[in-house]
């Protein structure tokens, strides 16, 4: 009788664990799909391509191919007249993890654009990296020899830093340049 109880207990425990794992996996897949749709919409917005919220995945696949190189994922533009690639880069800021979307025009060695996807920096200071005006200052910025975020930008590869947000500006510069180094390494540039 004792063995029978043990078998029933183990069978019930196994069933509960299986249901919990299946539910967790389904929740993960659903959340992943939501994050991907949001990323695709951000990329399409950055490039100014039209899309519909309900069909963002197919709209995205009309304009971009997804390429995996090692542990990195790149979104390569399909337009024949423009050699572009977009990718995410992330790293520590002063108070939080910063994640950015970087788009590069490979044939011109310049940034097509930059969007901050997530950050938790100090509002009014480091949090200003999420402002469109600051992000737009990266458009057309040369990526050689490196992107620099400095106090007074004068060179073609420099952007004005945010006053009072030195550590956030330095962190953003580091994660942009790290992402660009990964791009060069992964695409042999």
Helix proportion: 40-55%
- Helix count, per DSSP? 4
- Per DSSP E runs of 2 or more residues, the count of β-strands stands at 7
Average pLDDT across residues?
A: 87
- Which H/E pattern describes the elements? HHEEEEEHEEH
Determine the oligomeric state from the structure.
Answer: single chain
Shape: elongated
Structural class: alpha+beta
Uncertain regions: pLDDT < 50 for 5+ in a row?
Answer: none
Largest sheet features: 5 strands, antiparallel
**Largest sheet: spatial strand order:** 1-2-3-4-5
Beta-strand portion reads: 15-25%
Distance between the ends:
70 Å
What does this structure look like?
The protein is α+β, with helices and mostly antiparallel strands and 189 residues long. The protein has a domain at 64-187. The protein contains 4 helices and 7 strands; from the N terminus they run ααβββββαββα. It has helices at 2-47, 56-63, 132-136, 166-187, and strands spanning 64-69, 72-77, 84-92, 97-105, 110-118, 148-150, 158-160. The protein has a 5-stranded antiparallel beta sheet, with helices on both faces. A hairpin with a 4-residue loop joins β3 and β4 (97-105). The mean pLDDT is 87.
